[in-house]
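worker-03 picked up job from queue 'complexes'. Input manifest follows; three sequence lines, order preserved.
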Amino acid sequence: MFTVKEALDTLTLQQLSHEFGDSILAHEFSYDMMSITVEKEAFLAVIRHLYEDHNLAFRFLTTLCGMHYPDKEKALGLVVHLHSFTNNHRIRIKVFTTDADPHFPSLTSLFPTANWMERETWDFFGIVFDGHPGLTRILNIDDFEGFPLRKDFPLEDQTREDKDDTMFGR
Amino acid sequence: MQDPNKNSESPVSDFVDHDEIREYNTLNLGPTHPATHGVFQNVMTMDGEFVIDTRQTIGYIHRAFEKLAERRPFYQITPITDRLNYCSAPLNNLGWHMTVEKLLGIEMPKRVDYLRVIIMELARIGDHNICNSVIGVDSGALTGFVYLFQQREKIYEIYEEICGSRLTTNMGRIGGLERDFSWDAWKKIGAFLDSYPGVLKEFEKLLKRNRIFMERTIGVGPISAERAMAYGFTGPNLRAAGVDYDVRVMNPYASYEDFDFDIPLGTQGDTYDRFMVRQEEMWQSLSIIRQALEKLDRMDDKTTFHADVPAYYLPEKEKVYNDMEALIYHFKIVMGETDIPVGEVYHCVEGANGELGFYLVSEGGRTPFRLHFRRPCFIYYQAYPEMVKGSMLSDAVLTMSSLNVIAGELDA
Amino acid sequence: MIEFAKAPDGYSGKGFFVTSFEKAIGLARKNSLWPLPFATSCCGIEFMATMGATYDLARFGSERLSFSPRQSDLLMVMGTIAKKMGPVLKEVYIQMAEPKWVLSVGACASSGGIFDTYSVLQGIDRIIPVDVYVPGCPPRPEQIIDGILKIQELVGKESLRRRHSPEYEALLNQYDIE
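worker-03 finished. Artifact:
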């Protein structure tokens, strides 16, 4: 368990609500970390605020990954974990969008490390990052079709003939 | 020597070229080049011996871990984590178990924590063993590799006593360890602690003040603290640049707060610093293992090796065959009828290469809804072009081995 | 005690020994294989252990690793071969000079192993012919050595004409290798 820092969590939330008002859609505290869901339009501004504010100082991008909820209206999501080394405090920011408009602003202007993470997310989920310096596939071959981590993409290799569907439940 | 903070506008800083005609050529290094210890492709633009620019291609062993994890019950994901950073598989295994334990809200008994610390520090020594000896190999000193690999075999033997396997260990269970350490395991750990310091010292003597090695590594592939932070460096590579971030201290897990150890730091962030930081970390790991043994000695509890959570802890085979209750729980866990809480957790451990994180989203089913691995290699390898810009090709190779990029972790 | 390779069957007398070319060449080839380690993942680390002091592959005349495909006899594929890697592996195989043998080490190289996924090649025998498979995930160094011994057996017995036979050509044609 990470050490829970309630005062910092409250401060973060207060600042964000004050700055962005209605763009902060939800917040919840699960286990040892606070997650804040923000409006897509305000996403980059929120991250920038967290980065630039001297008290919060979330200067380290721990990880960034995509999500796919096929049953929800806003099916595609992005989860960002930020870490403030000065406060030793972690936070999770989430943002969602619809399947028809899979665009998010790129974080590469703030964190150079976001470059490959975003390429991976594009490769896996087909999420487009506007402003990314070179958004191409990274792990799969360039002419790969489909986005493998979406829920409707089959896991198994489709060329295998030795596996019987009745036995393996494919 | 290069100044690490110098802007890399002029890549070939110390080299004065009077030739009017400038001709760049392209060099394809990899994906199976023997000097790269893994499958990475670098298409380099070269000016003679100097690297002007590098274009990286990765994904040559992409195995779809994250997708696989969505189809597997929690306890079957451990073998996948083995294959992330296969040089230190137990670290990944235990990191994964701790993530699930956090989701399930399981409190670990102290003894299990200490046993885990012993395993994890052994794994760290094993990993740094490979990395440092390979830095030696790449700078032309094969001897160290042969010395240290013999010791790594001893660590393998300890693993075998604990879990029965050498490299991909699949060690432990959700809720503890699968069995207590055997008498042989204790004996082998003791023997290792006795014999290893001598070998490590000898290895250090071979390289630490070796003129050739120093010339080859000091000032090679440097990165400043700011750039390292911006690129998401963690672990020994970040510490070599001078940032004292260690998950074991910042966010202690597995009772690391009970141990007294130093975090070695570098100043230049160059290959020599990375080598020395890893070297010192091995000494610290040895001291942590000794402390853990002492603590275990002083403990009244001599038998606990798992938490008392029958609903989540996969029972021993012997009990499954002879005990009704264990059989029922075994059936429930294997058939996925235990209740997994809905929620999301992020947990990280100090892997051999840095912060190894697991972001787990559970929707209550038998398998995770989504599992994302924060793979330190993947994140810091993208800084490689910046680090080798302007250096010589042979130094670029050395820089890569000092970063300890593990293909399995890189490509997931 | 040092044990030398056993002499093949033949006729010997005072100061001479007669055997067939095939056997003499087989003996020479078999005990000086130059392996090309195509190590991609976990099995590669076990191969490092095999080369290390404890298991010491040098005992079998194979310590001289050849990193150039053109000078090697034995392609040792160790680790997962992703679909992205497939063409590279095939290129390396084509570049090797005849006679050449292939050892597939580990479950991933042999069949895809636990990675029945969209990105992993389901066994290297889909793109190149394989002589010996070593099971295990990863196999222990003893198993890798056993695999090499099996290869040596094949090499020692191989007919000198095999690589010119129509059967061999047909085999390569199956894999679209001219």
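worker-03 released lock.
Residues 4-8 of chain B have pLDDT under 50 and may be disordered.
Residues 110-138 of chain B form the longest helix (29 residues).
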